[in-house]
Amino acid sequence: MRLLFLFLAGASIALAAPTIPADEHFQVEEIAGGFIDAMEIAVTPKGYVFVIERTGALKIVNPTSRETKDISTLDVEIRNKDFARECGLLGIALDPAFDKNQWLYLYYSPKGKARHQISRFTFTGSSITDEKVLLEVKQDPEENTCHEGGSLAFGPNGCLYLSTGDNTCPFKSSGSAPLDESENRKWYDAQRTAANTNDLRGKILRIKPTPDGGYDIPEGNLFKEGTAKTRPEIYVMGCRNPYRISVDQKNSFLYWGQVGPDAGKDSSRGPRGYDEINQARKPGNFGWPYFSADNKPYADYDFVTKKGTDKFDPAKPINNSANNTGLTELPPAQPAFWFYPRASACAGPVYYDDQYPDSDTKFPKSFDSSLIAYDWTSNWIRLIKLDQKGDIISNEPWLSKFRFVHLNDLEMGPKGELYILEYGSKWYDGKNGKLKRVTYSKEPKEIEVPATDPRMVGLPENHPGSTLIGGSTCLACHMAKDKSIGPSYKDVAKKYKNDDKAIEMLAEKILKGGVGVWGQQPMPPHPQHNIEETLQMVEAILEVK
Length: 545
Fold this sequence. Notes:
By secondary structure, the protein is mainly beta. 9% of the residues lie in helices and 31% in strands. It folds into 2 domains: 2-440, TolB, C-terminal domain (Neuraminidase); 454-541, Cytochrome c-like domain (Cytochrome Bc1 Complex, Chain D, domain 2, Orthogonal Bundle). It is built from 6 helices and 30 strands. Strands 10, 11, 12, 13, 14 and 18 form a 6-stranded mixed sheet that branches.
């Protein structure tokens, strides 16, 4: 609850809300499992669920029989140099006329190519054929770049939306904005991508697929087709890593989660790290890497002299980077719809009661006009109630009595049921991704929750430090017995078992962050805790056998 309070402390909204039923009125069932780095799902009009894995696998699940079939495996590039791995098969969407044409769209990284692409395929029932490449997005795979986005979604007007990350290395900027314009340092400058009107990265694109496998530019994108130094596919710019997106199927409002930077506190360079849930009712610039949250500005920092100058102006952001190939003067920056201290924000569907008139298991009336938001790192789900204009009425936790492991995609089914895709325990190469289904019951039922989070098996039970770890963001990168993107707690305990000064040193490191002991993957700071709490966490870690 402490972590949740800290999240909400960064938000500038009222939280009074209509009462939603207790969690006991909802059933969360596992439908399928054993997925490797499970990325995104797409639900057919008949209720079957496509699941994609980062490794290139496309599968389909029958929720009734709970049978999973392998459909195809694309030859994808999944690893960059060193530790960065945000490529592969990233996104899936079904054509609005899927029942008739059986077209599906995949966003993936072709093997051996420095790019991602949207391709349209025809589903035969047992395989996919007839690939048509619609759109290619450049990718710089060098110098530990990451943030590739990759979420696909159709709007009610037949437009296809694609999220793309800034494809920049964030690990040399001390958790602040990556604005390094030094010679041969383009990989550390998000001005070349997210703030570049002539680049497709760090954006959400909007195109209109055509029957021949190409696409048109719909009216109303950010830049009119033919405008010099711009790309007409851009709908939203100024994004760091818009990992999961959704489109309101009634009014075409676009929603996305913006995964924020790692800074643990405000500094002369700019704000601490914040995550954002964003809403675009029309095209716009959402500020990265010049602004965060409610347009909190960064300083124009010189990475050679180590000095910052004036902070950027949200009313008139200027991109003077030597790595910029687009316009110098950018559209005004738009503030976040909702924001909170850094984790891994994602946007799910907007639920409307009248879209499921004949369902007995759809959600209650109080869910009507609610955006379902969630967080990959902290594993919470929230209902953000919207008024007719799209403004926030309320923001409430939901399903908090259930346990989830890295929520990675949420999609509505044809009967008003919600499908949840869990990525799995490990950061890379995990094999326990799961597909779950949420339905509503007017009569409450006892909640059956696994006794132990698989990532915590090995930590001492009933230890206050274990409890703190379970409620923190630590489990995003660490497991008790197995290595994830960070070392296992078992290996940490082994390394420091004879070091009398280890407890104090590690407790400070959790608070302030660090890099270098276990490789070049940095550990972000955890300012939501105090030193007494991190000391307890370290004590629990050092007890892992």
